[in-house]
Amino acid sequence: MSALKIALVAVDGAAYHYDRPYSYKIPDDMALEALPGSRVTVPFGNGNKRSRGIILSTADGDDTPCKPLLSVVDKEPLISESMVSLAFWIKEQTFCTLYEALRLMLPAGLNLRITKIYTVCRDIPNETYAMLSEETRCMVDFLLRSRTPVTREKLTQAAGLEEKSPLPDILVQQGLLFCEDGVLDRSSEATARMVRLAINENEAQGLLEQQGELTQKQKSALKTLLDVGAATVREVMYFSGVSVSVVTALVKKGIIEQYEKRVFRDPYKNMIKGDKQRDVLSPEQQKSYEELFEQYKTKKASASLLLGVTGSGKTQVFMRLIEDVRADGRGVIVLVPEISLTPQAVSRFYSRFGNDVAVLHSGLSLGERLDEWQRIKNGGAGIVVGTRSAIFAPIANLGLIIIDEEQEYTYKSEASPRYHARDVARFRCAKSDAMLLLASATPSIDSFYAANSGKYHLTRLESRYGDAQLPEVLLVDMKQELLSGNTGPISERLAQELDENLKNGRQSILLINRRGYNTFVSCSQCGHVLNCPNCSIALTYHAANGRLMCHYCGYSSEQQTNCPECSGSFMRYSGTGTQKAEESVLELFPKARTLRMDMDTTSGRYSHEKILEKFGSGRYDILIGTQMVAKGLDFPGVTLVGVLSADQSLYMDDFRASERTFSLLTQVVGRSGRSVYPGRALIQTQTPENEVLRLAALQDYDDYYRSEIALRRELLYPPFCDICEIGFTGIEENAVRSAAADFFERLKAAVFASDKVPVRIMGPSAAGVVKIAGRYRYRIIVKCRNNRKFRAIISELLCGCGKSKIYRKIAVFADVNPLDIM
Ligand code: ADP
Ligand code: ZN
Fold first, then answer.
1. 261/593 Cα distance (integer angstroms)
2. 217 burial type by CB count under 10 A (0-12 exposed, 13-18 middle, 19+ buried)
């Protein structure tokens, strides 16, 4: 008799407080396929519900009784054993379940199609139909009636059979039914309509839990999108089993939005790889490259930071290094922030490395993402370029990971698993003796600190490539403007500079960190501010559709003529958003050709790329936009950058606000004068005396770092400690508050009981925005040392929440070193 084998399985749907590897017997006929990294179905829980799972490991069994696996889905494992170990690490670091962690490593959508999906042959001859058994006829009728494919579960149910019944398989063999395993119709994908969430993931989660807001079908579609980020409309219909009207309804509600698909297809397809002349590195670039290559050659896990001013040509250094790593037969992952993953940027890689490049990004359809993922897994592509989740790409024999603009917030996941791509990169590099290269003009304080203390190797590019110079930057005092009678958003000096640029045929970029027209509407009689009914945040007036909109939950309402509080009829519209800024520019310069870029213009008819293409073509004079215009753009014609107000981001209630402001200003200023014409930049502010602004104007990262790191040390903030945020959300404010209070007490007790865990706990308080999409938000902030011992305490407390009544309707999470405290 062969030895009994068992599989340890991560099961989908296991709640955090009882999540662990579960043992299942491997039936003999599954022995060859039941390997670590394979997807399986298993009976789970009291009702033995058929659940999805992934095998973590296999072992020899003993007499302990356990249930058998129901099926193995994959012919060969999808996840390598080293990635399985990464999943354990992610669970331990971010307090998620094993299955949640493993899902990160599967291409989006793959986990959705674990069940076989059935359709029917539409033209069954009458004679044949007449001969069918009662049960078969039930299934056929059921399929004929339903317009979307049907799962095995539903199909067998319709015929009153058990799900295990072999009848569907027999009918498939006979050609009456078709069975698909996620085969998608790819015919129209190049032009497919895409949809994505228009609200953030937490809000979407909230909507799913709320009663009455959405229909069951709408929830199903929303859940699919929450899972995969973005997909074609057809894919959403297919995977959620809904019709197009359900998708349309969600779009109408402002919960999801349609956009045009980005086309990432290789623009140099017909070129032979390496056809394009390789750029010769400047001496400074050459020196950095050589230093980095030295690091790489040690073949030991290492981390380096490339600090290069804007326009210094960091990408050229990357490419040179990638060439060596590929020649060495090892794989490469390049992460770029969401915003700068444009077809232009990707084409630089394609033209240099041809088909060896694979792109992973949520702007692709699920089908395309799956194709790319498989190409990487099969070794058909050795260089992955992508956004955050590409850090999990199945690259074998990893040699190098590059994270460009490493300080960007999009590298940290704000939904469970709350990982930072940089940490995952460090883990992967350590496991494969690979090199991590972080790059930026304004590294995060944490990374630069690590470089200064010798943990990272540091190399710098101090000057722009070629003859280009860094722009000259001027701070403009907007208080002074007001005193001299200018109430508009554009100072006299900025108007002058814009005028000069228009006369000389040069281009300008204006940054305004608010979309919409006005930033808020209030009653001039009683001061009442119009707020979103679901969120504790002011509504923004949008001139384009004449509506008041909430940027958090997508709520919108008609413009109001009277105050709902005092019925006063003078509503005041204040603050400047992108729309109003554009209008003000046009008032001053009626002939200027302006383009606006913000979430409103990029989701609709004009996509992000089209706007950039238009601006790049030189047919427009002024680009006005939100953060989107600040980063990564490389337009030689731009010689003026204006920041309409630097104050908004500076005075946020968050210790990272200044770091973020400095980085944003440096980035946007860095768009100016990147080529032969010298550039200039104006930063408008109410507080020109502010130190951060002064240093940003000087573009002096080192000085800024020195002042910021001193502050962090004094006030005890990272990198001198870690911060753990524990968040509580729920519909009833009192319940949320008492859950937070209960946690606080338990945390204090646990810390007290375990000796020498140095922490400072800031008691429960309401979040900055206390209510979003109808859910109240409270938080506890802990300054701590993020080590195993501390995480064990938090993990145990979180498990306790799962078992306690107090938390029954409350969602609790812990986030270590969040970039945005809620
Ligand atoms: P960064 O990312 O550091 O801001 P980029 O990589 O975008 O800078 O480079 C700035 C500009 O200089 C780009 O237009 C790039 O093509 C050009 N450039 C940089 N290095 C070289 C080089 N060695 N040869 C030719 N062009 C270069
Ligand atoms: Zn809202």
1. 26
2. middle
Measure CA 673 to chain center: 31
Atom number, ligand 1, closest to the C-alpha of residue 636: 14
Q: What is the DSSP letter of 732?
A: -
Q: Is the pLDDT of residue 171 over 90?
A: no
Peptide bond into 149 cis (omega under 30): no
20, two tokens: 């662990």
Question: Half-sphere exposure of 187 toward its Cβ, with a 13 Å CA cutoff?
Answer: 1
Ligand 1 pocket residue status of 308, Cβ below 6 Å: yes
Residue type, 125: P
d(CA 534, CA 550): 9
Could you tell me the distance, in angstroms and rounded to a whole number, from the CA of residue 520 to the centre of ligand 2? 13
- Please tell me the distance from the alpha carbon of residue 766 to that of residue 769, in angstroms, as a whole number: 8
pLDDT at 327 over 80: yes
Residue 16 has pLDDT above 60, yes or no: yes
Q: Show the DSSP H helices in 670-787 as ranges.
A: 691-698, 701-715, 733-753
Least confident of 217-221, 327-331, 598-602: 598-602
Strand order in the sheet with 256-260: 230-232, 193-197, 256-260
Looking at per-residue pLDDT, the higher value among 197 and 288 belongs to: 288
Q: How far apart are CA 130 and CA 361, in angstroms?
A: 50
CA 384 to chain centre: 17
Q: In a mutational test of the pocket of ligand 1, which residue from 460, 465, 633, 669 has the highest number of ligand atoms less than 8 Å from its CB?
A: 465
Question: Looking at the CA of 675, which ligand is closest?
Answer: 1
Q: Which of 312, 316, 346 to mutate to test the pocket of ligand 1 (most atoms within 8 A of CB)?
A: 316
The span from the CA of 478 to the CA of 686, in Å, is 5
Establish whether residue 285 lines the binding site of ligand 1, counting it when its CB lies within 6 angstroms of any ligand atom: yes
Cβ neighbours of residue 657 closer than 8 Å, sequence gap 6 or more: 649, 650, 651
Model confidence pLDDT, tens digit, residues 198-257:
877 777 887 887 777 889 999 999 988 888 778 888 888 877 888 889 998 998 888 888
Provide the residue type at 200 as one letter: N
Helix (H, G, I), strand (E, B) or coil at 189: helix
pTM equals 0.83
Least distant ligand from the CA of 772: 2
C-alpha distance across the termini of the chain, in Å: 58
Per-residue pLDDT at 188 exceeds 50: no
* Token couple for 456: 């990272």
| Weakest-pLDDT range from 182-191, 560-569, 605-614, 691-700 | 182-191
Q: pLDDT tens digits, residue range 764-785? A: 999 888 988 888 999 999 999 9
Mean pLDDT check: name the lowest of 55-64, 186-195, 580-589, 608-617: 186-195
- Under the banding of pLDDT at 50, 70 and 90, the label for residue 180 is low
Sequence-ordered strand ranges (E) for 144-245: 150-151, 177-180, 193-197, 230-232
The tokens for 105 are 């490593």
C-alpha 739 to ligand 2 mean position (Å) = 24
Cα-to-centroid distance, 580 and ligand 2 (Å): 22
* Rounded Cα gap, residues 193 and 246, in angstroms: 15
- Of 307-311, 400-404, 569-573, give the range with the top mean pLDDT: 400-404
Ligand 1 geometric centre to CA of 419 (Å) = 31
Judged against a pLDDT cut of 50, whether residue 493 lies above it is answered with: yes
Give 616 Cα–ligand 1 centroid separation in angstroms: 16
